[in-house]
Fold these 2 entries.
Entry 1:
Amino acid sequence: MANYYQPEIETMPREQMRALQSERLVKTVRHVWEHVPFYRARMEQAKVSPEDIRSVDDLSKLPFTCKQDLRDTYPYGLFAVPMKDIVRLHASSGTTGKQIVVGYTQHDLDLWADCCARALTAAGGTKEDIVHISYGYGLFTGGLGIDGGARRLGAATVPVSSGNTQRQITILQDFGSTILCCTPSYALHIAEVLRDSGLTKDDIHLKAGIFGAEPWTAEMRAQIEQMLGIRAYDIYGLTEIVGPGVAFECSEQTGMHVNEDHFLVEVVDPDTGAPLPDGEQGELVFSCITKQAFPILRYRTHDIGVIQHGKCACGRTLVKMTKPRGRTDDMLIIRGVNVFPSQIESVLLSQGYTANYQILVDRANNFDSIEVNVEMNPEIFSDTVRGLVKKEKELEEALKSLLGISAKVHLLEPNSIERSTGKAVRVIDKRKLID
Amino acid sequence: MAQQLSVFLQNKPGKIAAITRALADAGIDIRALSVADTTDFGVLRMLVSDLPKAKEVLSQHNCVVSATGVTVVAVPDEPGGLARVLTLLAEHSVDIEYMYSLIGRGENKAYMVFRVSDEKALHTLLADNGLDTVSGEELGLRQ
């Protein structure tokens, strides 16, 4: 028997869903036209007026919104309500140039909570459950997002946040947590620390886990499920849309249902922007049709995926998306943190290094590592080891303060990083995260 | 004073061999040499017979090089000779950043290359105690 939180929505017949979406899209387009000069200007440029948008069939007439637009309008340029109506601000973990800020009204937090409650319910969660949330709480949407869903469901939340794994295990044992929410790599880390403490899955009480914010493979899923004695569910989201809960996995574990009564999903050709049909791989594009504060339209995620309509064996009719199969840009996700090579490059240049560098990403013991190889040059060369070690440390500290994670720096001699005749190979990602 | 050639060394096999080979091919003589290293990288320091030429040759071999002023001290070539010099430095708080010895020696003298925290203090100290220094030119080095 499938578990639904809002069965009338989750199993809604397609025509009814389309009607609901159309009504909401029309309303949202009017809302942004009236309240966000950016969208009005963009629509005018594209020669589209709110009257042209009558149903979801007209979605592709609307211009795209991209990450740069969020940076250009930082911090509040895309907000569609006055600050008196905003009750929460979140910011992206990525720090390319400027971070991005997203606001929520109480209505927005409520619908987000509904989305996460659907995800928890699909994973078998009820008000009886104890939801152990090891996503970071704070500006990052992970912790508070799932927290909102768990409370909406009436479950008990354990807002433990990330870190201090021994303590996490003690809490898992003593509090009797039944559902674990964190990044998949942290789940595996918890599983390993549990094992190394001489404990087994029988010493804890978990039945399910909801893991997201970074790519993971079927092998990782199998490993997590086996080591923790749970079923592991995927969840998808991004701050620009709402946070976790944009899409969630059901018991079939064959893709994620998009909460499409709130977020319209399209797949487009990354080069031309042309919409692609079901089953064809392209860039995922989302539009928020119910949010008040930050109703972003046709947001290009750079995530590559496939969508498929149809009724799922779980009974849901919500469109399904594959887990992202890669990126159209060079963004790396390292321990849940978004990292762009250009960020690393700007740090190198500001410290007197050249743009000849290479980023090595690997995963050992389920822990992502990042190393930066950079070439030495006469301007920063010091003839004492102490001086060079100091340079190396300064660079590591600058990278850590920018990225929020530690990167090991290796100083190399000039021309030791292979020059490419075409596009430079800046990133070597040895993790095998895409199935 | 003498000008020392400093070379950045990435830690990989055959690196010093390649550098010395390049210098040899250019007819450059190495008169003193030391290596300081960490697990990742090191610094090769040398007194060479022709510094400008050595810099040029090694730059062509993708090396990062620099010239650094060092002091070559003529240490009495007898038991306790070096200890006497080092004790003097220690007593007068002149810190040694690094030191190494010259290949070959003078009459009753061994030559030591010093890089210290306070070059001027070092020279005064040596002069006051009857210890000689040797310039790069006196060693026959083209600086």
Entry 2:
Amino acid sequence: MANVEFDQVWKRFATQTEAAVRGLSLTIPDRELLVLLGPSGCGKTTALRMLAGLEEPDGGDIRIGGKSVVGLEPKDRDVALVFQSYALYPHLSARDNIGYPLKVRNLSKAEQQAKVERVAEMLAIGHLLPRRPGQLSGGEQQRVALARAIVREPRVFLMDEPLSNLDAKLRVHTRTELKTLQRELGTTMVFVTHDQAEAMSLAHRIAVLNKGELQQIGTPDEVYDHPANVFVAEFIGSPPMNLLEATRDGDSVVAAGGWRMPSPNGAHAGAGSTSDGELTVGLRPEGIEIVTDGQPAEVVAVEPFGSEVIVDVRIGEQALKIRAEPDVRPAPGSTVALRADPDAVRLFDRSSGAALS
Amino acid sequence: MAVATRGRLGRNRLYLAGLSPAAFLLALFFVGPALWAVGSSFTNRALVGLDAANPRFVGLDNYTRLFSDPDFGRVILNSVIFVIGSAIIGQFVLGLLLALLLDYAQRRGFLASNLVYGAVLLAWVNPTIIAGFLWVAMFDFYNGSLNTGLGVVGAPPINWLGQGPMLAVIIANTWRGTAFTMLIFLGALRTIPSDIYEAARVDGASAFRRFWDHTLPILRPIAALTLLSVTMATFGTFILIQTLTNGGPAFQTEVIALYAFHEAFQNHAVGYGSTISVVMLALNLAFAVVFLRWSRARA
Amino acid sequence: MTAVTAAAGGTAVDQLARSATTEPPPRPKAKAGPLEWIVVHVVFLVVIAFFLVPFLWLLSAAFDAKASAYIQIPVEPTIMNFVKIFTEHDFARVLANSIFVAVATMILVVFTVSLAGYSLSRLDLRRKDWITYAVLLLQTMPISATMVPIYGLARQLGLRNSYLGLILIHAAIELPFLIWLMKGFFDSIPRHLEEAAWLDGRSKFRALIEIVLPLARPGLGIAAGLAFLSAWAEVLMVIILIDQDNLKTVPLAFYEAMRTQGGYTEVQYGVIAAMAVIYLLPVMVVFFMARRLMIRGLMSSTRGL
């Protein structure tokens, strides 16, 4: 059980011109489940591998429990890693797979047996132990990989997109299990994924990365409600936040089609804003209402999802998605009136993309 | 034609017909010679002289003569030594080592490994007669590259073909054939995803441990089959040894293929030569049956 | 799959193949430390030296008027060796003979093997396995063991000193493996393609030619290449069957040049090396163009040479 710190970590691979990880700094307190989220190539897996000891940083420090682990072999860091491909030893049975880290540590056969049985019971895979990976389904392999990591009782769990090879239903189910498991075990966990829904559902905090740089770190609510920049705003949330070009006009903000909305408090002189008046306005789909009297927009399509309806509209060239009650069914081609919820308006500097608080 | 070709039986008839040119060639030039050899081994057929015109049936005389001839014992011994030296110690071990080296180097991103790979293959792919020529020059006592190299470091020249002929042919044949085992082992090694080694590393396994626990178990199943394959391939070596030593000096490198050839074409005893050929074919058949049975059990 | 490569796919390896789930994107490799770099490259150098030195010698000797058995920078660089082999040693004829025999064998083999491979693939007999088994068995036969009986048989059939005999025999030698290879290719072409053609009224033969063969082109290419190279390198049968000067092929010329032990003057090495270089050209060309295919082909052969 330990906390993890990244301190200005840099990594560039010899074969690439751009650095994979740039100046990454973040702290993960003990017992937290942190999700590293970002598109592929953003550096999240590289950061995880550096934490595991499979890669070494070119600059900066990585600490576990306060002590630097840079230069230490993976086995000396007391971390466990679950690979995206599970990396199960194909020639060994599930039992031997799980027991392998214990075997390497020269535990007695009896002890190995006991620990393996215990973990197998925890994950309900006791009946799978004698089988080989080739005889297991994807979900079963994933549990064996998990068991192999758990049996070591490491200080930190590292997971590299462990759910992405599962089919959708299993993925959602396993997600919940993982969350519960982490809470029960109480071990610090660093979880890498590109799936924002997964991140939102699992994380205590999410660290969003793009092109090697940390974009924002915060709880799911923080990241959802107050994205630090346009990238985070678009990446998190499904459907993504609607982004409109706008200009400032006194107390208000005027967006496409002459849509006027109140700017959030204190957005007049946003810190660090290149205030030439050019902005981007962000509105989540649920932050727009369809009313009787408001900004006109043309309905393009209506997507019913049972518990809600997503209405695709257009203001001029600008496309928007709106979340509405299930009974709201405007006809495609008709015009509706929109109103922006003042609490949902988010402003971003148009050139830098940074949020204006 | 339409009626005859409809239905399974009709189609099969056509397919069997399609096989017939191949079957004809194979019968004539595989089965035919085998039968001819067997038949001839029971005669005293010769290339010249009385027995050429009127070969006599001599029953098992050739066989009894062969198995009681100490020369043949020597030939068998030579063949065994050659196979152990070139196939087992040479090609098998060297092929395995090269495969391990190349797999490691490729995973670590060493580009020069492609050169190594190409060099080993080149030695294998060129016609055997050329290989023979190249090594005749290499082993040349006065000017050969090997002795010149020894001279450079101040060592005395070795009379390879004169005093160490078995070693010389073993070296030449190993040079020639190693690519075969290397390719098989490399193929097996490449099926191991790098993730496995990384997982083992995270689990705490040292480099040696990773090799022992994960690399070797992958190689074990195919090792026996590969060994048998390369043994069979080396068993019939002829041209390479003939160009280097022609079985000499003084019978030291006379392997079974050469023995048959010399008996038939130098001593003109075709019947006797056939006997030796039959023994070769029988031995090879035994190996082949074992090989095929093992490989089917695996697949 | 060939007998050997089928063997290489043993139980453990099959499981490996099955258990490998979607591969994550290939990761950039970590740099190797300096010590590791040096050690690996030293080993590489030793290995490359062992395998390439004979070829380096060949090149140096071919272009040297005063060639010797050891590698040297050509004492008297020249291309006269290449000229001499044509003017003084009648290499042109020998080369032409080799080309003719190899091409003819290749044509015969491709025709026979595509027909046989297709037929074997589509054959629907209970005992079909036996045929495949028999073909595999034949493939393992060492040709050197058949030298004596083929000599006898050829003499009785009057096929000695005739290209007909040589081509037929050499084609036969190449058949087992290549039939196996083509069968594999045809197995991978679904039957319903030709069945559709039959329903359209095509005869089986035309369907084969028009529909199936074009799809099997890569396989045919491999078979043709291997057939050519195998015939090009053929020496055992040539020794047995040919002794007329005007019919000799290149391997036989080499063979005879080396049988006369001794008498190696410096001129000889250079000239023979030049012949070897020219003789090797087609092999090199095919090797560089079709490495993977060649390897797959040669891998299955367990015969000695």
